[in-house]
């Protein structure tokens, strides 16, 4: 990796001073999408694979986790869950 990175810098002369209308953002975009388009796409695919693997590793079934059944939660009636309690009012002295 060090060889690939330094290969382009050792043979190049020092860059000239930028002109008045120079934009770092434009230059970065031009370099990324012209000279480094293939490495950029490889890095994007590698990151996508890493995200998919991370999600797949965290979604495995575990014995110690609790599971909620949404169908059972929707089918519950009010009479099974709520109990109304009648209490006498407090007296203020």
Describe this structure in words.
With 93 residues, this protein is an all-alpha fold. It starts with a helix and ends in a 12-residue tail after the last helix. The protein has helices spanning 2-10, 24-35, 37-58, 70-75, 78-81. The chain is built from five helices and no strands. It has a domain at 24-60.
Q: What is the strand and helix layout of this fold?
A:
Elements (H helix, E strand, L loop, with lengths): L1 H9 L13 H12 L1 H22 L11 H6 L2 H4 L12
List keywords for this structure.
single chain, 93 residues, mainly alpha, 0% strand, elongated
Brief overview:
The chain has 93 residues and is mainly alpha-helical. The protein has a domain at 24-60.
N-to-C CA distance: 84 Å
Strand content: under 5%
The shape is elongated
Helix content: 55-70%
List low-confidence stretches: none
What structural class results from the helix and strand content?
A: mainly alpha
The radius of gyration over CA amounts to 32 Å
Q: Count of DSSP helices?
A: 5
Whole-number average pLDDT? 83
Q: Quick one: how many beta strands?
A: 0
Order of helices and strands: HHHHH
Major sheet details: none
